């Protein structure tokens, strides 16, 4: 049955094509977890006989996937010893102009992203960018896109900087028996970074000038109101529920102050006493109707402020993440606040506070939420982090002797691998063990640092690449590209990198790398050239996604804090894609001249 050919492909090839297309459709248009989608794709390819058991699960034993898993532990050591905080404190300085700020921001971020998780680096720098923007008198939106771009361009400068580099280099080693040097992409990556920084400065007018979401929360009197209960009020001695304050028009009661005692959240059976301060959030004009209907009066001064972070109160800002189950829902029709010990105070969208009851706002991706919560509430639970992203976490590492130790371990790992003293996998294992031995991170922190969901996606990407190659899809596509582009190797390289650059705007760059590896490899061999330079160019291209906020996790991290719209990335991103593509092809062909397979 497998011998039956339809439009040049056999049954197994068509099963693979349909599986891959279906998988990407599900990832684009549903909220299913990516690891489950990839696991389902592997299952289909195995059950239908496209891959045997060894092939279907080869991704889990792939050297590149194992390296990624071990590197999570190394990064945990660097994170928990405060390496990132030290760099931010001592190396960034205080820029005096926009151009200098871009340079001082993008270069350190790119350097860090060459060795650490891009997402971790960007999350740390978001707060720095906000402070810079105030000092420079510019909107954070002018700096947050460059921040995200720098992390992506820096990641391609080493094989360990971004997963597609590890996946592609691992597949190359499997095919040729020759391992790539950990610094193989350094010169092309640095050149593209240099061009990228200059392009950002030159095209600064294309960067949107958006209002920062936090500005909507700078004055709490704009969205909270405090009413005082007079000593002769008829509701004294009654509960909140009996007084009809659990569901008022235009807002909700967020806390009660009994003299010096603060009660938040305000529970239904709490008694109202004379002299109580009742703090409401929502539409001020409608809430003030309670003065007439309930006999309350204005409080003499406003005690609920952004600067007040005391024993009993903490104000935290969070952003609704892409894929959150809170999207298209209201907080008021769920148990979210109760489950997480949070009280929603206000909601902002694109820098403007939404002037209605916060609990009745239908949430969208990127909305900014202001919560009141106890100062020691855990905002890093799996339930919260899958829905919201908080930028004001109290978890700050202490900088000390271990900061130097973890940095030394990281540098030693890179140097030993770069000099080919030992393979990267062995270096990574030794570095991870050293991080634990010198207590740069605890075993518990190391285990928590390993993102098994991401590893599942990486393993699935490797298997998809194998299926595309085994079924002959890669070979047919390579021949198709050669038919269209002719036999000029630079034209073929450019064509595949061009498609890869724009495909990665919509799918995981890891999946794009694994999917395009066999196509690029086959095309190079059909042309009679060593695939190495073709694959270096591919590594840069699949990590060069600038035109959509869904093209990279780091874009999604800055999307809400910058108050961006979807089209904002496209304005400058499409040009950046083309500029970096041209720089990539130019530098790769200079550093790695094309070499015939059989000279």
Q: Could you characterize the architecture of this molecule?
A:
The protein is α+β, with helices and mostly antiparallel strands and 599 residues long. Helices cover 52% and strands 9% of the residues. The chain has 24 helices and twelve strands. It has helices at 11-29, 34-47, 53-56, 63-80, 83-91, 98-113, 118-136, 141-155, 163-176, 186-202, 284-287, 290-294, 336-340, 382-385, 401-418, 424-437, 443-449, 452-470, 473-485, 489-503, 509-527, 532-542, 553-559, 566-591, and strands spanning 5-6, 9-10, 224-228, 251-258, 261-263, 277-282, 297-298, 314-320, 343-349, 352-353, 368-373, 388-390. 46% of the residues are buried. The model is unreliable at 305-311 and 393-397 (pLDDT under 50).
Assign a percent range to the helix content.
Answer: 40-55%
Number of extended strands: 12
Give average pLDDT, whole number. 80
Strand order of the largest sheet: 5-4-6-3-7
**Which residues form runs of ≥5 with pLDDT under 50?**
305-311, 393-397
Q: Biggest sheet, in brief?
A: 5 strands, antiparallel
Characterize the overall form.
elongated
Approximately how much beta-strand content do the residues carry?
A: 5-15%
* End-to-end distance: 41 Å
Class of secondary structure makeup: alpha+beta
Count of discrete alpha- or pi-helical segments spanning 4 or more residues: 24
Specify Rg, calculated over alpha carbons: 27 Å
